[in-house]
Automatic annotation (TrEMBL):
UniProt-recorded name of the protein: SRPBCC domain-containing protein
Domain of life: Bacteria
Domain Activator of Hsp90 ATPase homologue 1/2-like C-terminal per the UniProt entry, residue ranges: 13-139
One Pfam family named in its UniProt record: AHSA1
Family: Belongs to the AHA1 family.
Species name: Neobacillus novalis
SUPFAM superfamilies reported in the protein's UniProt record: Bet v1-like
Entries under InterPro entries matching the protein: ASHA1/2-like_C, START-like_dom_sf
Length: 150
């Protein structure tokens, strides 16, 4: 499976992009009501929690923080939440990286979802979903609103 890599140039500072990606008010808008719960300490748990198949506290994604440098890097392991893997006993691990760097008055956001395991059943849907999430991030930072995707 090939790595999923996307690069977006966003009309906002790294701090503004970081806030959209990390803060509860940002993630709720970008990720359909989900927030990140984590201490952001290396090795600690990171979860995306929000409305879903298991109610308002559905764990959509979880993993462990691998790297956290505010306004620059967030890297963590990625597992699908239990409501997505009920029929599949095997857990598939991959890795997510958000890399931010200033470019003039903009921010270059490089997103990489890599280290996929062979046979991961979520790969195809994940590829499609990231385009929407990252486009939503760009729109939120630049306009203060998100895309109407429903």
């Amino acid at each position: 499976m090939k790595d999923l890599k996307y690069v977006f140039y966003i009309g906002g500072s790294p701090e503004e992009v970081w806030k959209a990606l990390i803060s509860p008010e940002g993630t709720k808008q970008i990720y359909c009501g989900s927030v990140i719960r984590s201490t952001f300490q290396v090795g600690d748990l990171l979860e995306y929690i929000g409305p879903g198949a298991d109610g308002d506290e559905t764990v959509h994604v979880y993993g462990n923080v691998l790297e956290h440098v505010p306004n620059q890097v967030l890297r963590f392991t990625h597992f699908a939440g239990k409501s997505y893997t009920k029929d599949d006993k095997q857990e598939f691990e991959s890795r997510i990286s958000y890399l931010l760097e200033p470019v003039g008055a903009c921010t270059k956001l490089t997103f990489i979802h890599d280290q996929w395991q062979k046979g991961d059943p979520l790969y195809e849907n994940t590829d499609a979903a990231w385009w929407m999430i990252l486009s939503n991030t760009k729109t939120l930072v630049e306009t203060g609103k998100t895309l109407d995707l429903e």
